[in-house]
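hiii so um. not sure if this is the right channel but i have a protein structure encoded as tokens and i wanna go backwards to a sequence. like what aa goes where. can anyone help
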């Protein structure tokens, strides 16, 4: 199974959530984008 098919897996969408990633210490990509836009402006 290719990377795209794995990323679109229904099981992956329900097990790897933003909440769980934050709890493990990861930051969502949106946080980095918001910070970068703030630094540019």
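sure thing!! here u go:
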């Amino acid at each position: 199974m290719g990377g795209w098919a794995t990323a679109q897996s229904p099981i992956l969408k329900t097990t790897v959530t933003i909440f769980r990633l934050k709890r493990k210490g990861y930051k969502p990509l949106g946080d980095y984008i918001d910070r970068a836009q703030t630094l540019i402006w």
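oh and Residues 15-41 form one domain.
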